[in-house]
């Protein structure tokens, strides 16, 4: 099954910024793309001139997480965060609630081998 995720970058498209404007006609919204993973909203460089919001599909980048038990994770230096969700156009919100999240096993698979 696929879902549709918004696919935009606030550096290139001002419609990608928060607050998200659901009052645009559908034709005025940022593009969506089909996704077999999760929709993602990444906020980077908070508090700097390089502040950026990117909305996309998890298939477009590598995620090295085995299991995440909340919808959003804060970047180590607290200058950004990343949120995941699994519903059509769910990355078009300011904060993704935890009931929208279920990170699928395809995000990252940890294989534990047994020694012989």
Average of the residue pLDDT scores: 76
Q: Care to count the β-strands?
A: 7
Order of helices and strands: EEEEEEE
Poorly predicted sequence stretches spanning 5 or more consecutive residues: 97-116
Helicity range = under 10%
Q: Helical element count?
A: 0
Could you tell me the strand content as a percent range?
25-35%
CA-based shape: globular
User: Within the largest sheet, what's the order of strands?
Assistant: 2-5-4-7-6
Largest sheet: 5 strands, antiparallel
Gap between N and C termini, in Å?
38 Å
Describe this structure in words.
Helix content is 0%, strand content 26%. It has no helices and seven strands. By secondary structure, it is mostly beta strands. Strands 2-5-4-7-6 form a five-stranded antiparallel β-sheet, with no helix packed on it.
């Amino acid at each position: 099954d696929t879902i549709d995720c918004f696919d935009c970058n606030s550096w290139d498209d001002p419609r990608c910024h928060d607050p998200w404007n659901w009052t645009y006609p559908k034709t005025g919204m940022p593009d969506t793309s089909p996704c077999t993973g999760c929709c993602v909203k990444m906020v980077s460089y908070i508090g700097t001139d390089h502040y950026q919001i990117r909305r996309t599909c998890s298939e477009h980048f590598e995620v090295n997480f085995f299991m995440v038990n909340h919808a959003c994770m804060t970047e180590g230096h607290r200058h950004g965060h990343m949120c995941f969700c699994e519903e059509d156009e769910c990355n078009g919100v300011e904060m993704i609630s935890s009931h929208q999240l279920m990170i699928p096993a395809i995000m990252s698979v940890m294989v534990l081998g047994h020694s012989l």
